[in-house]
Design the sequence.
């Protein structure tokens, strides 16, 4: 098992590379969902303001 | 009263003549890119080594990067004055093909910047240890390369119309697009210095220039239209 | 020819709904493919004759590099559609692509550097592919910078569309010139992995990763697109229905 992780000495390059990729994959998912949630929140807020303007 | 019809060609000619006349009234502005080019080139011996042999090795890169940066510097003012006094808007609405007018402006920019830079380069080359025999080759390559640089730059200048601190953005946009010119041009210069035939890179530079002449004014016109909405 | 389907593609509420429905159909297969590819790439594939275990970085480097270039292509195509047919949704697609594309360009550069170090001894090598990816990163940054620099959204859309189209035309030229430059100066080349001549058990994880990454991008794009559409449509009436 530790042989697997050692990757013949390449471990110090290989695992950081995989880690960076994993971080990018996860980050983009999180950022995309966050952008969507914020957009929904903004839209709700704007609609609420508009509603208040229309029916005082 | 007879109204004479202006052809696109004569409209372009008028724009070119106007730009040249306006520029000649401000000789200080004309000298600046040249002075910048000279300063950049002269920083290398100071920052690196005074040995001509070593300088000769980096001369192609230095000359081309210097010409590139100096060209970029002059691009900011390509449309600036025309935007502020409303001339650019007139270009868009006057009914003449904007593409032709953009081509004229680009040609003017090249005549006022690229061409002088090309002519100054041999002098700087001597300061960097470049043999005199290399000069014709260097002149040819810079001549073609600066044409393409002006063309690409015009597109960038059009895109960054009205962007705050657009100068830095303009450089960021234009430099990656200028990489092929740099690569071929520097190689041509290198070959000229070692005395070998530089026809290969020269043809490639020519191809880039032709591609640029065909497409860049179109893109610049589109960019200017968008920028003035 | 009934073009209604094409015009419906330009309708923000329609796209918003479709994007929502389609996302899981891309996301789940993407996840499965990537996991499967990870396992077969790290465990099942045999070590390379020359590079030993080190070649396995290929399984994250190549898909990232692929995404970086493909995303720019998608961005430019969407921008062109937006410019020519004046479809707001197309511009929204282009805007949604840029960030993801830049991210994966950086990943391809970092993984490329981590691959280069054991192979060539230095972290950076002017390999033509790495150099081209670096220039691509600047193309992305320029695009994002231009968008950010123009306040009016419509103008930003159209100006960045012109830039993207100019960029996409230049990319093959830049790649060619960089390879030409590299071959002349005989700089070291890191990525000598010829895909057709790779044995199948090495190739299969790579193909799975490439497909998985592509589907993953589609899913992320759809989510970002929905956010972009909501932001652009302001208080259009259909939004009320959708947010219920």
Sequence:
């Amino acid at each position: 098992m530790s042989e697997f992780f050692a990757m013949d000495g390449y471990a110090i390059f290989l695992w950081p590379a995989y880690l960076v990729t994993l971080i990018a994959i996860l980050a983009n998912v999180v950022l995309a969902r966050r952008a969507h949630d914020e957009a929904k929140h903004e839209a709700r807020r704007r609609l609420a303001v508009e509603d208040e303007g229309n029916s005082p | 009263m007879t109204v004479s019809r202006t052809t696109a060609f004569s409209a372009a000619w008028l724009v070119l003549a106007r730009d040249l006349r306006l520029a000649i009234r401000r000789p200080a502005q004309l000298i600046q890119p040249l002075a910048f080019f000279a300063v950049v080139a002269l920083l290398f011996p100071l920052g690196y080594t005074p040995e001509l042999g070593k300088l000769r090795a980096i001369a192609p890169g230095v000359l081309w990067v210097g010409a590139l940066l100096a060209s970029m510097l002059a691009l900011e003012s390509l449309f600036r004055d025309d935007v502020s006094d409303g001339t650019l808007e007139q270009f868009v609405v006057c009914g003449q093909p904007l593409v032709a007018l953009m081509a004229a402006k680009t040609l003017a920019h090249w005549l006022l910047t690229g061409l002088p830079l090309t002519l100054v380069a041999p002098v700087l080359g001597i300061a960097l240890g470049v043999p005199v025999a290399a000069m014709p080759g260097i002149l040819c390559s810079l001549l073609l390369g600066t044409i393409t640089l002006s063309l690409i730059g015009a597109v960038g200048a059009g895109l960054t119309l009205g962007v705050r601190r657009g100068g830095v953005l303009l450089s960021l946009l234009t430099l990656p697009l200028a990489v092929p010119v740099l690569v071929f041009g520097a190689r041509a210069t290198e070959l000229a210095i070692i005395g070998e035939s530089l026809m290969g890179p020269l043809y490639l530079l020519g191809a880039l220039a032709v591609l640029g002449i065909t497409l860049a004014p179109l893109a610049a016109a589109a960019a200017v239209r968008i920028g003035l909405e | 020819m009934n073009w209604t389907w094409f015009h419906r593609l330009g309708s923000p509420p329609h796209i918003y709904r479709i994007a929502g429905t389609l996302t899981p159909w891309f996301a789940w297969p993407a996840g499965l493919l990537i996991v499967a590819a990870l396992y077969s790439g790290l465990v099942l594939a045999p070590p390379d004759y020359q590079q030993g275990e080190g070649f396995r970085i290929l399984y994250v480097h190549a898909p990232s590099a692929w995404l970086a270039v493909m995303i720019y292509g998608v961005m430019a195509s969407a921008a062109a559609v937006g410019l020519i047919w004046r479809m707001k949704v197309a511009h929204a697609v282009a805007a949604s692509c840029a960030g993801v594309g830049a991210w994966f360009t950086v990943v391809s550069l970092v993984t490329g550097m981590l691959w280069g170090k054991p192979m060539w001894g230095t972290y950076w090598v002017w390999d033509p592919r790495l150099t081209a990816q670096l220039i691509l990163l600047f193309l992305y940054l320029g695009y994002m910078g231009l968008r950010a620099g123009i306040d009016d959204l419509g103008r930003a859309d159209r100006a960045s569309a012109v830039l993207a189209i100019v960029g996409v035309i230049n990319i093959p030229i830049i790649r060619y010139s960089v390879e030409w430059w590299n071959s002349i100066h005989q700089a070291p080349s890191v990525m000598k992995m010829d895909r057709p001549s790779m044995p199948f058990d090495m190739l299969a994880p790579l193909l799975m990763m490439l497909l998985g990454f592509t589907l993953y991008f589609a899913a992320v794009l759809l989510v970002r697109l929905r956010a972009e559409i909501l932001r652009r449509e302001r208080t259009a009436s259909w939004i009320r229905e959708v947010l219920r």
Notes: Chain C has one domain: 58-242.
